[in-house]
Write a structure and sequence with these properties.
single chain; 94 residues; alpha+beta; four-stranded antiparallel β-sheet; 4 strands; 28% helix
């Protein structure tokens, strides 16, 4: 974490959120507090890809899986994907 910067805006330092840990961080998230981009950690590997190389369906599954551990600002305003649209749809159904 000491050497990581956001690949989009080069901001440093980034925030680390650990969801599952064994000897290493198995699942988690790295967040840029400046641009609100988030990067998942899967199977001990941080995936810090540019927006155009990320898979929306997989990223949304990740957000849903860990939504109780992810900061609310990322769930609603995170980039490149958030659960904002899902929240709007569920509130309209109420």
């Amino acid at each position: 974490m000491d050497i990581l910067a956001c690949p989009i805006d080069k901001y440093y330092p980034l925030e680390l959120h650990v969801f599952q840990e064994k000897d290493e961080i198995v699942e988690g998230m790295i967040i840029c507090p400046k641009c609100l981009r988030w990067y998942p950690i899967h199977d001990e590997i941080p995936e810090m890809l540019p927006d155009e190389l990320r898979e929306e369906k997989e990223e949304l599954l990740f957000l849903r899986k860990w939504k109780n551990k992810i900061p609310k600002t990322i769930l609603s305003e995170g980039k490149p994907f958030s659960l904002k649209e899902e929240r709007k749809a569920s509130s309209m159904n109420c």
